[in-house]
């Protein structure tokens, strides 16, 4: 009886560990990009006025033949954009990055862009009405 309980417990633990491993591996995978297409990525300040600007940038990108790629948000007051920029360029198919931000953030974003290998285009769209920080 004890051996059966031990076996059932061990079997349950193995199943649970397997489920967690599968979930974490799936979430950590990079998205697949079609090598025959070009994608636009978006770095967007988490600010109410940014939503309309993001929609405009998406529409313009689609109109120019780009597919919509990753959209990465950041909080106002962010000073180190290196990780955010790296999230935007997981693939060489990312040909255009839209930076939808406060003008105050542009120097720090440009600094982060110089630290990564990216050969595509960058377009800036300012978010007005954002207080300085």
Characterization of the model:
By secondary structure, the protein is an alpha/beta fold. The chain folds into two domains: 1-30; 39-126, Rossmann fold, CATH 3.40.50. Helix content is 43%, strand content 22%. It contains four helices and four strands. It has a four-stranded parallel β-sheet with strand order 2-1-3-4, with helices on both faces. α4 links the parallel β3 and β4 (121-126). The radius of gyration is 21 Å and the shape is extended. The protein starts with a helix and ends in a 7-residue tail after the last strand. Mean pLDDT is 81; it is low at 19-29.
- Number of helices in the DSSP assignment: 4
Number of E-state strands: 4
Assign the CATH architecture of the largest domain: 3-Layer(aba) Sandwich
Order of helices and strands: HEHEHEHE
- What would you call the shape? extended
Q: Based on helices, strands and strand pairing, what is the structural class? A: alpha/beta
**Spatial order of the strands in the main sheet?**
2-1-3-4
Provide a quick synopsis of the model.
By secondary structure, the chain is an alpha/beta fold. It has four helices and four strands.
Helices and strands in order:
Layout (H helix, E strand, L loop, with lengths): L1 H27 L10 E7 L4 H14 L3 E8 L7 H7 L5 E8 L4 H9 L6 E6 L7
Parallel strand pairs: 1-2, 1-3, 3-4
Brief descriptors of the model:
133 residues, alpha/beta, Rossmann fold, 2 domains, four-stranded parallel β-sheet, 43% helix, extended
């Amino acid at each position: 009886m004890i051996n059966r309980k031990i076996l059932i417990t061990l079997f349950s633990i193995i199943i649970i560990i397997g489920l967690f491993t599968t979930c974490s591996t799936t979430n950590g995978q990079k998205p697949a990009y079609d090598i025959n297409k070009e994608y636009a990525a978006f770095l967007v300040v988490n600010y109410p006025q940014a939503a309309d600007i993001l929609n405009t940038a998406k529409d313009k990108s689609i109109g120019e033949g780009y597919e919509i790629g990753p959209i990465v948000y950041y909080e106002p007051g962010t000073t180190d954009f290196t990780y955010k920029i790296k999230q935007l360029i997981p693939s060489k198919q990312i040909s255009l990055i839209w930076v939808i931000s406060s003008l105050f953030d542009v120097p720090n974003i440009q600094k982060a862009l110089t630290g990564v290998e990216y050969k595509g285009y960058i377009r800036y769209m300012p978010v007005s009405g954002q207080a300085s920080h």
